[in-house]
Amino acid sequence: MRYLPLSDSDRSQMLHAVGAKSIDDLFVDVPKAARLDGVIEHLPLHASELAVERHMGALAKKNMVAGEVPFFLGCGAYRHHVPASVDHIIQRGEFLTSYTPYQPEIAQGTLQMMFEFQTQVARLYGCDIANASMYDGSTACWEAILMASRITRRDKAILSSGLHPHYVSVCNTMAKFTGDELKTSAPTLSAETDAEKIIAAIDDATSAVVVQYPDILGRITDLAPIAEAAHAKGALLIAVVTEPVALGLIRSPGEMGADIVVGEGQSIGVGLQFGGPYVGLFACAEKFVRQMPGRLAGETVDAEGKRGFVLTLSTREQHIRREKATSNICTSSVLCALAFTGHLTLLGEKGLRQLASLNHARACEVADRLSAIPGVSLVNDSFFNEFTLRLPVEARPAVHAMVEKGVLGGVSLGRLYPDSADLANGLVLAVTETVTDEDIDALEAALKEVCA
Amino acid sequence: MTVNPSGWRPTTPANEQGSAGTVTGNRALQLEEPLLFERGRLDQTGVDLPDTKVSGGRLGGLERNRDIGLPGLSEPEAVRHYTRLSRQNYAIDLGLFPLGSCTMKHNPRLNEKVARMPGFADVHPMQPQETVQGALQVINELAFWLLDLTGMHGVAMSPKAGAHGELCGLLCIRAALEARGDKREVVLVPESAHGTNPATAAFAGYRVESIPANKAGRVDLEALKARLGPDVAAVMITNPNTCGLFEPDMIAISDAVHAAGAFVYCDGANFNAIVGKVRPGDLGIDAMHINLHKTFSTPHGGGGPGSGPVVVSEALAPYGPLPFAAKMPDGTYKLVEEESAAEMHPESFGRMTAFHGQMGMFTRALAYILSHGADGLRQVAEDSVLNANYVLRSLEDVLDAPFAKSGPCMHEAIFSDRGFGEGLSTIDLAKALIDEGFHPMTMYFPLVVHGAMLIEPTETESKAALDQFIAAMRSIAERAKSGDQSLKAAPIYAPRRRLDETLAARKPVLVYREPAQAEAAE
Lengths: 452, 522
Prior knowledge:
Chain A has helices spanning 8-18, 49-60, 84-90, 93-96, 108-125, 137-152, 165-178, 195-201, 224-232, 318-321, 334-371, 395-404, 413-416, 437-451; strands at 129-130, 156-159, 181-183, 206-212, 236-241, 260-264, 280-284, 297-301, 307-311, 377-378, 386-390, 411-412, 426-430. Chain A is of the alpha/beta class and 452 residues long. A 7-stranded mixed sheet of chain A has the order 1-7-6-5-4-2-3, sandwiched between helices. A 4-stranded antiparallel sheet of chain A has the order 10-11-13-12. Chain B is α/β, with parallel strands linked by helices and 522 residues long. In chain B, helix 3 runs antiparallel to helix 12 and helix 6 (162-179) packs across helix 7.
């Protein structure tokens, strides 16, 4: 029990000091009927560091590691190279083992980092302000819809068919309980997005329009006409970005008129981690700040006039406002936010543009090669690092067949939309800077075989 | 756009206090650090990427046509920037962090090593299931131990944090009530509850009503019974509660709630006090979230990420969220998503997050549980309770301890600022504690105690560390009682003196703007 510093003699001295005969005297308030005195069934006794490491190592070995095989998965989680110094920074004990900065005088490191993170996110998204992060992109998306309801005092949102189906699923779950009305549909396997249909659907009761950018098939939608149409009816435009690296190359949603921009920050600094923890990003126009959920760091001065940072506008938050809070979220993904901001600082404007260019160039190359395979065609007119192929066969078994050949060859739309026959032949592939020439050769060979 | 045309400059003027001043604003190892935006440049980068020629024309005509405004730092500058920032932080690695109900304990580095194994860290959430059998087994194994330790029937692993877990529990309750055609509108929450409880109930579509605490710091059973009725969906209780006390009437409370057709939600934030000693299922609880980061020690990293699996009773188990990892009769593991829900989990209330929860936290928590085992986990609860009682009994003669006579406390001890000299309050004691090299306790919570100080030492503190903390507390408490106004100036030795929080809220500055831009915005 290497993590417990008290010795038996400490324990008896301390029991004596508190006036207890045995430790059970301190548990007198626990009803006898609920005491667990005997052995805990099943659970073994404590184990050595070596034994635990061995057990966990054996479980880890049962997984196919993305970095060890040709790997082309995206759909809301992306594999990029993370510089070694990013993990070094987040493992510094003063960051790793600190808590919510409730005592700002001894938490300036975290607070300044949060302030820098907020600034980076706001600039990347083209918005005035950003918060200090959410759980992930999907929960940020739902919170944005709720925020739009509060601002517009309407509760009917239109969700684009290009929005990640898991995000749609989260919103549908929550809307059942809040009574919000959501209008959703599945995408079609086409280069066309549903922008026109969305614009036609906006009416005086619409609270918000939610559009993913680039969308689930990788298509890039011009948000400006949608923003204009939404604003004309008093509705807000919420843009959802699941791949922030794209913003190194394409226009930010804020520039095109989005009122709230949310998304997933995982692809910068945070690894795949089988789905979490990730880091939700949340930005908006400054005038909406008091309706925004989540933590905020703000600049101020100390008693000597030195610049410093504190958590601020907490009157929106649950610990002050209780049932009237803007959200029940009480934490933020600060450590993941640190990884995000650290990686983005290493990249800088120049590095982010270069990384984005590299991703796009690589994706273009792979799209051209794969769409030359007989029977395979490229769905997208536009894309960043992720695009959709129409296969001559169902994509779902094709993905499993490629696993047999040691290739993790994309996400089938059949897995994402099991009810849609139209999408069954769709395969979504993400191509990042981590992909090598050999990986592409292997993918091409595997796909040729499964399509033959 | 140019960022920082003037190059590096200190963030604060050199201290004017004569010989104490330095040109840089630094004081030996106490280092000032400018903002990234004041230090970095748009043409600076800390990464080496291969050159590329973009084969353009595929971006839908939406190429970026202006700068983003993201300054970069070279690798040495970046490492130094963040290392300097880190040194402005107090952390559990530096000393006692006695935040009550937040539970800050040692972060075992084995857990970090395990979570970084490529088989866990470098696996995509949408990989075909045959390629992630080990990851699904981790989720399933951890779920098994959580059920074993809590005596409950089902567990939802996907909630991303404690408050998200509360929401999951209430959604299970709401789905169960709706399944029996029962529309109930009210959730009862004790006034001592965490603010997340009422916020969550409102978020799940309920009206919140408060139930008072009695003089002994517990839920007033009679007041609760009187309020129960056909409109009450659930009661949210924290046990051990935020006064640091176990609710001895818990079984009676559960029985009364069930008799009224409602459910018992327990805020499991304080499960570390009873793990291995009490199974919440034996107390009649229907749903409880477990903050993995508190009870099973995963890093708090400045306040997050967390992880909040929810254990539920038999009555609620059919309604838990998607997706989840199931062990199949043939020994393989399956991720049950929307597609197979109709067959395997037809009454689920749906999905609460894009993927399957905080995998990086699951590996850490599993490593922690296996390291401690059955004997170690029980020792965790016993040592955390012993340490808290040691603090309570060592300070009750110098600080008002409102519930000291209610019996032993659990893992946290509560004090108040009663008896402090004119104009002095909890915050002054807390800030003085900073100068003594300790992170302060939780202040002004729970609200039922005036000027509350909630101290949770946790089980990973040695007796020597506690004795030093107690000595510091005694000395400051005596100064406070004697009306020593110099406490108002604390902290003196921290990187910053007291910060003006009112100014920050009145004139919010939430992002950096270049001086010219900021001026133009005024």
